[in-house]
Amino acid sequence: MGDGKVFKRIFKPGFMGTLEVKNRIVMAPMATRLASEVGEVTQGLIDYYVERAKGGAGTIITEAVCLDYPLGALSPNNIKIDHNSLIAGHNELVEFVHAYGTKILCLLWHHGRNNRVIDGRQPAAPSAIACKFTRCSTGKES
Fold first, then answer.
1. Which residue ranges make up each domain of the chain?
2. How many whole angstroms separate alpha carbon 114 and alpha carbon 138?
């Protein structure tokens, strides 16, 4: 395996549908908790993803990005994209990563029935079947 022949295609351009990527190295989503306490993209978060782009990743998939705070949040310091005021930070992140020829994909996330009732608000869920961990379904705690 050390001769480089086995993985020679990994460094060649490839396609995801019609999207061309510089190589076939994909960084999978990993939680960093580097967003601000209110879910904004921070300089630390940008630096984290830029280092991966500098390292040669052809495609980066962000950590979970919350669509509906607080019901859709996964964890503290979860990146959010549920308000127009957050767009500028996401745009800055994308621009910095693109500077290295790396594509970046956003992992859109809603915690759904796995979340608990928060401030009297019911979490969204696809069915009335309760989550085995939180025992919540469409907001009715068991």
1. 8-110, 113-142
2. 10
**What separation in angstroms does the CA of 66 have from each of 28, 61, 86, 105?**
17, 14, 11, 14
Topology (CATH level 3) of domain 8-110: Trna Endonuclease; Chain: A, domain 1 (3.40.1350)
Pairing of strands 59-66, 26-27: parallel
d(CA 124, CA 103): 31
Q: Do the Cβ atoms of 136 and 121 come closer than 8 Å?
A: no
Token pair belonging to 39: 């879910």
Which segments of the chain are extended strands (E)? 14-16, 19-21, 26-27, 59-66, 79-80, 103-109
2-12 tens-digit pLDDT: 566 778 899 99
